[in-house]
Amino acid sequence: MDLTVDGKGVFAGTGGRPLEKDRPLVVLLHGAGMDHTVWVLQARFLSHHGFSVLAIDTPGHGRSKGSPLATIEAMADWVAAAIVASGFERAALVGHSMGAAVALTAAARAPEKVERIALLGASLTMHVHPGLLASARDGTTLAPDLMTSWGLGRSAQIGGHPTPGLWLTEAARRLIQKGVGPGLAADLQACTDWKGGEEAASKVRCQALVFAGAEDRMVPAKATKEMAAAIAGAGIVTIPGSGHMMMLEAPDATVDALHGFLSGKG
Amino acid sequence: MADAKLPRFDTLALHAGQRPDPTTGARAQPIYQTTSFVFRDVDHAASLFNLERAGHIYSRISNPTVSALEERIAALEGGVGAVCVASGQAALHLAIVTLMGAGGHIVSSRSIYGGSHNMFVHTLPRFGITATLVDPRDHDAFKAAIRPETRLVFGEVLGNPRLEVLDIPKVAKIAHDAGLPLMLDATFATPFLCRSFDHGADIVMHSATKWLGGHGVAIGGALVDSGRFDWEGGKFPTLTEPYAGYHGLDFAEEFGPEAFLMRARAEGLRDFGACMSPTNAFHILQGVETLPLRMARHVETAFKVARFLQTHAAVAWVLYPGLETHPDHDLAKKLLPRGAGSMIAFGIKGGRPKGRAFIERVKVFSHLANVGDAKSLLIHPASTTHQQMSGEELDAAGVGEDLIRLSIGLEDPDDILEDLDQALKASQKS
Prior knowledge:
Chain A is α/β, with parallel strands linked by helices. Chain A contains twelve helices and eight strands.
């Protein structure tokens, strides 16, 4: 569906069902250089299991035009505005990687709008490798290759994906290739520049669940534990056999944990 | 400097798509010879049917053994995924019916497999889909043949039977400038010799019966998508508009780079049902495991045979893109750097009667309607694979009565050369 946020048109997937005001809203936030399609199965499942879903393309990503937002804080404020723009007062935020930083920051800056947060592949700081940052700026093929290589767990790089016939290595690379350009470079710079993780985590008062990929090399287990420890009362769930891209690598385990948490059972 | 480390081609040929069986620990890919899969509960069943969860429902739509092969072929081609089907022809049909309906039009190279020619010229028109066939080397003809209702540009990486090398980058640009995808039949090349997506193709199909399997025991086909083509713009409503068959699902919007394959499977296999059997997938997987080794040997021997035929007194002409005399030799070096395949076409002196005598005297070669076997094969296209074509169509496709097509196998190269030599000499004495 098309939304107008801060006076500009943007796109959000709804998981195959229109938004319904009497269903709690879940906002799915993609990672750097990605778009709403990373959440395809989670969006479809949640929207058909009691939730209204917005899988948002942030400005300059996927089907949303405009310039990418420059800081995690700006993205967080933008997400809070998007909740209002969609006609809801509050939402649960589910974020992946950079999107997790955005969800965490939104929960700290706009607590009245955030019901709960689920953070996938999240850490309190996100220092992007200089080689990756440079290749994203230069628009070379190296950035998608690096993100695919580092982002997917070893298991996913061999395959055996539950979606029949899906070769995830190339599907992930293709998704990131689409995001190469101003969007990816701006996102990675915003991640590197982000210094507000600890402060935001200390301010969060809503329920939080941190997702760790057992084979995640971009956010190792230590960083995930630090994130969970920094948020009062946060739980932690480990997705077996998954790297950083857990909603793609292990869609069932991810959606089961998400659905339980969002339904108040997790 | 940062470096991306992902499994390479030969490793993927052995491992892609298959982890040791989680239940039994089986290292080899098990054959899941089952029609259907038990649901965990009612909600799990509903979620699978509604594409909310990943998994298998019924083996017409997907099967774990077939899926392992799909991932492996996609990995080797560099595609976002694949759908394996009953045959190469089923793959071609599935692509077309996923992309267009009645009123649709295809621009195709005219140097294509006889069965594909029949589909385009004789069968699809009954369903309202037409095709214009053009010389694969005449790029202006591709451009000129595109109409407002065109939905696909099609060709073969190596033409059949005269082995023209399609200039993939040029034809891809023509297609893309017109907002159309380029689909290639890459059967003769395999991804070992040519990675079509790297040169601009959008969709690749295979008759997996041929070199991918390599053993001549299983029929199968594969459809692979690069995931790069932008389906938006109004020409492909099957992918960009709500589909009533899945409660208004917009495949491109929800599945992004996997839209084409999702629709092909969710609709095409569900409704047309040309699925691959798990056992055939298993057989073809065994072949794919050794594809790099076999293809290296195939092209090495094929080059020797082509050189041998070039100097043989009974041979009027030889077509092999690996030879400098082939009109597309330079293009072959660029697009197929590891070798120009293992198909050779040649003209025998004395035409049809001498060709008949030659075919009846070979001992190592088998006379049959297949290519890409580990065993060397030959055929006379004008009387077999291209038999349904008129004389005019045969001329246009360059299929003369003297043309003999060889598929060079993995026997000892000297045995192959000796067999050809004795049969050629004998043919001229008959």
